Amino acid sequence: MRISTRHAVRTVQVLSVTVTAALVATGCGRSEDSGPGNDAPAKLGAGKAKGTVVMWSMGDPDENLKDLAKKFEQENPDADVKITAVPWDAAHDKLTTAVAGGNTPDISMIGSTWMAEMAAMNAFQATPAAIKSSDFYPGQWDTTEYKGTSYGVPFIADTTVVYYRTDLTTKAGIKGAPAGDREGYLKDLKAIQATAGKENPKLRHATGLVLGFNSWVFWLPMVWQEGGDIYDAEAGKFTFDSPEVAKALEYYASVPKEGMASTEKPDDLQGFRDGLIAVYQQAAWAGGSFHKDAPELDSKWKTMPVPYTKQPAGFAGGSDLAVFKDAKNPDAAWKFAQFLTEPANLAAYAKVTGSLPPSPQAWTEGKLTEDENMKAFEEQLKVSKAQPSITTWQQVADAIDSELEKLALGKATVAEVQKTLQSKATSIGTGR
């Protein structure tokens, strides 16, 4: 899943009821001796890759990925990689239709929040034992797992950090970055807000606030930071009624309630650039946008890890690579996935695309933290976690988005939101 709240691309689509029912009922037509959680790891053959590998990539045509494919072909002269770009807004339905019809590519990028849903459809091969979980950040590896089995390998990591305008925070008396603890951070936001229209004439609100689509991405880590969660995997029960969830909701509601963020859904990216807000939490793509479209601000913004209460935490999003059970050339597909996720190749890809590699060694080999603004992302990846690995996650996430908006607008209390979410999530269930 690519973390996005501004662009029209919705990286997570809800699977149509018809296709879901058919796939769950039939198990994609495969035998019962294999399937979600019961699959043995795929085996890699000896020697170099051979034959044609058909891959689907997500988003716009990716020339940098094609360059890596050419390098793979040079190292494997008998292999031929064919990459087709699939727009994110069409990808989910295209993938599920391909799985239902047994007409998949060999390998594809998969949005991280889709992995459990599609693994439950018996769509993927289990990850070969030769690909080690220890080579990746734990949260990123967890995005590949369903029922304790890994069905892919992390390729592009995604998480959020806090961007802050140093020219605006300095006028609020803040030396360096805002406080890293949640209580101190709130005090700094109040200090920034106090300069609006005074020391900072253009400033309207201290910070941005994500309302509606994907607001759960920014709120859920607050629960983890309190030491809680919204789902108990062992018990198979949702825990929206916990004290930790209440505290996270109270914090989320306090920012707009105290006038430190707008609830009118402004363009926070543009607002940050224009000096209308001083602090902005977002993913790595935002920094690339600032550098490209507003280079005059390069010396006026920095990044910091997300502030926390009891323990640091963040959301692990991004894209994984998965090989399908209906792949015509699975061995070469896994070898290509293994090649793409070698640290040197992950680092090279990250440097030219601005994406985040999911491997600690890739950060080291690529010397990515020589860019000061990338350090916060590395710190966040170390503590980021995946959302619950349930097939109904998108429905639960949509409910969270809706209730968070009601809370921020003052249309529901914390207690009411907790009660509604616990009821809705329990009704939705966890799927297959």
Describe the structure.
The structure is a single chain. The protein is α/β, with parallel strands linked by helices and 432 residues long. It has helices at 17-26, 63-75, 88-101, 115-119, 138-142, 166-170, 182-193, 215-225, 243-257, 268-274, 284-293, 330-340, 343-353, 360-365, 375-383, 393-408, 414-428; strands spanning 51-58, 79-86, 107-111, 145-146, 149-150, 153-158, 160-165, 205-207, 231-232, 237-238, 277-283, 301-304, 314-315, 317-323, 384-385. The chain has a five-stranded mixed sheet with strand order 2-1-3-14-6. Strand 9 (231-232) and strand 10 (237-238) form a beta hairpin. The longest helix has 16 residues, at 393-408. It is globular, with a radius of gyration of 22 Å. It starts with 16 loop residues before the first helix and ends with a helix.
Please summarize what this structure is.
With 432 residues, this protein is of the alpha/beta class. The chain has 17 helices and 15 strands. It has 2 domains: 20-30 and 39-159 and 317-385, Periplasmic binding protein-like II (D-Maltodextrin-Binding Protein, domain 2), CATH 3.40.190; 163-315 and 390-428, D-Maltodextrin-Binding Protein, domain 2 (3-Layer(aba) Sandwich), CATH 3.40.190.
